[in-house]
Design goal:
With 95 residues, this protein is mainly alpha-helical. The chain is 77% helix and 0% strand. InterPro entries: TPR-like_helical_dom_sf, TPR_rpt.
Amino acid sequence: MSLHVLVSIYSSLGRFEEAISVLERAIQVPDPPRSADHAFAAFFDHMQLGDMFSMLGQVDRSIACYEEGLKIQIEALGETDPRVRETCRFEFLCF
């Protein structure tokens, strides 16, 4: 949780490269067996990282993060869950 606070601080200061570094570290933090909470956190981290890469004009890296986040969400919720459709609608990942 403290890593996410740090990401918010760096982002609000416009220090996106540092925020990205912290987010990448947060994604790597080992967790106990994957639970729904872990899946949600991993999904959120990947989507936020995708947003930051997008703001920096790094489109390929942004799309890769969105795709990984979507993959995590589908594994946790299933393809037919309405939240997956919502992610696809906002991130333009599903065609």
